Automatic annotation (TrEMBL):
Domain Fe2OG dioxygenase residues, every copy: 216-338
Gene Ontology MF, one: metal ion binding
Name this protein carries in UniProt: Fe2OG dioxygenase domain-containing protein
Keyword annotations: Iron, Metal-binding, Oxidoreductase
Family assignment from sequence similarity: Belongs to the iron/ascorbate-dependent oxidoreductase family.
Native source organism of the sequence: Phaseolus coccineus
């Protein structure tokens, strides 16, 4: 198989470190010490129109002054597909222990099937607060090439479905994952149009082309277990998900579903949720509609776009207080990323992970990802 080549361009102008967040609706919650910002949004009908000029929206959400996130509204069929999958997360988590053990895949670093207590929190403790189920919603078996499976097991492995214990999961997971993927491709097209105004790109090097031909997209269904007294680490801003920046290309996110005793409820703590660190080093809480799909830029896209599209660090805070006792949360993320065999030609000047990437380096996305995984796993030991 021939490797696709991507040229990563040097950013032609400096990035302001004192950026002002533009034109967002901002409010300050009485329970939170950080501003609350509603994401920039694009309607599905606008996104469908390839002739629409969405550059201002793209810049507002993903540009050098943006938060690295925007949301897509009014996507046909999305609300029911979201509900169908998220309501299965508690049922999956409550399957018998032996059934869940059969869904584990240690060889992939638990990047396929069920994972619980395998990842570590920022404190270094095992993360027992949430369980995850990973699968590729586009391809059950991305490749049969043994050398690839051995080298990149977290991308090239095959899906593991609980087809006997919870057959509905596969159908719901693939349906939602595919929809978020399709909408993400539409968004990627408009991102390419925006980037092309500032830098020269080859026909096959745009974000849409990279994602369309990739075989290693990964969906993650997350379930946060209920606590009897609320989250014991609830005072930490990153109590549910530690600070990180996605290293892929584009991440599609659902709004979380909160339940107690199997009944959907509103989140009892207005301070809980997604937090982002801005380009000017401020922390803000970010919200979007329950029926909207949010998309975040990953580090690979920032490099590929010469930093015209920017990734940002983010975390998730758990609800706290007595009202949070017994609360469950379910959500879903789709990590859209280049193929493991996609060749990345890095520029002489690197703004991200420059301690890992030599000047003018040439790495596949699989090699690049392994370097990052080794770095982060080493840090957590």
């Amino acid at each position: 198989m021939s490797m696709q080549t991507l040229t990563l361009y040097r950013f032609p102008h400096s990035i302001s470190q004192n950026a002002v967040v533009p034109r967002y609706a901002m409010s300050r919650s009485s329970e939170a010490s950080f501003p609350t910002i509603t994401t920039t949004s694009i309607s599905f009908s606008q996104l469908q129109d390839k002739n629409a000029d969405l550059s201002l929206k793209i810049e507002e959400g993903f540009g050098t002054n943006g938060l690295g996130i925007l949301s897509v509204t009014d996507v046909p069929g999305y609300p029911s597909l979201r509900r169908n999958l998220l309501q299965l997360a508690p049922r999956l988590a409550k399957l018998p222990k032996e059934v869940k053990e059969d869904l584990e895949d240690p060889n992939s670093r638990y990047n396929f099937g069920w994972s619980h207590g395998k990842e570590k929190l920022e404190s270094g403790k095992p993360d027992i607060l949430k369980g995850s189920f990973y699968a590729n919603p586009i391809l059950d078996t991305p490749t049969t090439e043994v050398s690839f499976i051995q080298r990149y097991p977290s991308y090239c492995g095959s899906n593991i479905w609980p087809r006997n214990a919870l057959p509905e999961l596969e159908v719901a997971f693939k349906a939602l994952g595919m929809l978020i993927f399709d909408v993400g491709l539409m968004l990627a097209y408009h991102c390419d149009q925006y980037v092309s105004k500032g830098m020269k790109t080859h026909k096959d090097e745009g974000l849409e082309s990279i994602l369309r031909r990739s075989r290693c997209h990964k969906g993650r269904l997350l379930y946060y277990f209920p606590s009897q007294q609320g989250d014991p680490d609830g005072n930490s801003l990153s109590s549910w998900c530690g600070w990180h920046t996605d290293h892929g290309s584009l991440t599609g996110l659902t709004c979380g579903m909160f339940t107690r005793d199997g009944v959907e409820i509103s989140c009892p703590d207005s301070a809980a949720g997604l937090y982002i660190r801005t380009r000017s080093d401020q922390i803000v809480k970010v919200v979007f509609g329950k029926d909207d799909i949010a998309y975040q830029i990953g580090e690979t896209t920032q490099i590929l776009s010469g930093s015209y599209l920017c990734a940002t660090p983010h975390c998730v805070q758990a609800p706290k207080g007595n009202k949070s006792s017994g609360i469950e949360r379910s959500t879903f993320a789709l990590f859209m990323q280049p193929d493991w065999d996609e060749k990345l030609n890095f520029p002489e000047e690197i703004h991200i992970h420059k301690e890992l990437i030599p000047s003018n380096a040439s790495l596949t996305f699989g090699e690049y990802s392994e370097m990052l995984l080794d770095k982060y796993y080493h840090q957590k030991q």
